[in-house]
């Protein structure tokens, strides 16, 4: 049975149940470098997703364990939008997975937005409140089960996680992580601040 490109979509938005999932190093990165981190659900096993596919626990957990090595080596990159192949194009990289772990059947993760052209677009979309999807990309074959669903076979290989515009799993959200505080860039000049102060004074009269 030949392998095909398997892509799954999970919803990303600023909201939902926000928990502090960042390491002290990541919090410091936010404070000192204005870094942006996103956390939440990335994949799930033993549940039929919006694409009609089921990832068996043994298959998905094995691939997550392998993927953790890429995360540790800081090579777990992803792109903005899905390409049509299994290659991660560095020129299109928008983010890096900094942590990935499991909570029962759920695969959770932390993603850092990169200072790249695609990363700048991703940051702008998140800051504008756009709802985006986190999507796994991998290679593998599938078979139909007795319930009419599609089961991913043991030859599945997880490649990466991309950000996309079309979510398929309801109630699977990633959250903007603020650490102590997420600092917005100061876009006001000194003249802007003076004009604002004068307007406030004149407006009181």
What does this entry show, briefly?
The chain contains 4 helices and 11 strands. It is α+β, with helices and mostly antiparallel strands.
Task: Tell me what you see in this structure.
The protein has 205 residues and is an alpha+beta fold. It has one domain. The protein has four helices and eleven strands, in the order E-H-E-E-H-E-E-E-H-E-E-E-E-E-H. Strand 8 and strand 9 (150-152) form a beta hairpin. The longest helix is centred in the N-terminal third of the chain and has 16 residues, at 57-72. The protein is globular. Mean pLDDT is 77; it is low at 12-19, 168-172 and 179-196.
Key features of this structure:
205 residues, alpha+beta, five-stranded antiparallel sheet, three-stranded antiparallel sheet, 25% helix, 33% strand, globular
Secondary-structure element string:
EHEEHEEEHEEEEEH
Q: Count structural domains.
A: 1
Shape: globular
What percent strand?
A: 25-35%
Mean pLDDT: 77
* Estimated radius of gyration: 20 Å
Count of distinct strands: 11
Distance between the termini: 79 Å
Poorly predicted runs are: 12-19, 168-172, 179-196
């Amino acid at each position: 049975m030949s392998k095909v490109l398997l892509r799954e979509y999970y919803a990303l938005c600023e909201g939902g149940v926000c928990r502090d999932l960042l390491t002290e190093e990541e919090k410091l990165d936010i404070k000192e470098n204005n870094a942006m981190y996103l956390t939440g659900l990335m994949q799930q096993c033993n549940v039929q997703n919006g694409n009609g596919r089921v990832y068996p626990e043994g298959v998905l957990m094995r691939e997550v364990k392998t993927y953790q090595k890429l995360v540790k080596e800081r090579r777990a990159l992803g792109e903005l939008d899905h390409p049509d192949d299994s290659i991660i194009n560095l020129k299109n990289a928008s983010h890096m997975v900094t942590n990935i772990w499991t909570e029962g059947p759920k695969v959770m993760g932390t993603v850092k937005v990169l200072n790249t052209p695609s990363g700048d677009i991703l940051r702008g979309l998140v800051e504008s409140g756009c709802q985006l999807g986190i999507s796994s990309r991998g290679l593998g074959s599938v078979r139909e089960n007795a319930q009419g669903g599609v089961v991913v076979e043991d030859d599945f290989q997880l490649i990466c996680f991309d950000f996309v515009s079309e979510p398929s799993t309801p109630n699977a959200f990633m959250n903007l992580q603020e650490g102590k505080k997420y600092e917005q860039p100061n876009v006001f000049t000194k003249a802007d601040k003076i004009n604002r102060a004068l307007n406030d004074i004149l407006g009181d009269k």
